[in-house]
Amino acid sequence: MFNSLSEKLESAFKNIKGEGRISELNIANTVKDIRRALVDADVNYKIAKEFTDKVKDTAMGSKV
User: Fold this and answer.
1) Radius of gyration for the chain, computed over Cα atoms and rounded to the nearest angstrom
2) How far is CA 34 from CA 22, 39, in A?
3) Of 5, 34, 46, 49, which is the most buried if we count CB atoms within 10 A?
4) Candidates 3.30.530.20, 1.20.120.140, 3.40.47.10, 2.60.40.3930; correct CATH number of 2-59?
């Protein structure tokens, strides 16, 4: 289970790698993939959504 989660998270982060800055456009799919990976790993959907929303809010405008 943890190997699968790690692989899915690595794949999600590859989407924003090398983008320069995190924007609404390039983070949307990444957050969606992270949320899906967490739910697939049996994390409660509400918790996964809350977590990814906080990550998104914190990451907006950050350098990659």
Assistant:
1) 12
2) 15, 9
3) 34
4) 1.20.120.140
Question: Which residue is listed with tokens 């289970």?
Answer: 1
Long-range contacts at 29-34 (CB < 8 A, ≥ 24 apart): 31/55, 31/56, 33/8, 34/9
Number of residues assigned to the chain: 64
Q: What is the pLDDT of residues 11-54, one digit of tens each?
A: 888 877 776 777 787 788 889 999 999 999 999 999 999 999 99
User: CA–CA separation, 40 vs 17, rounded Å?
Assistant: 23
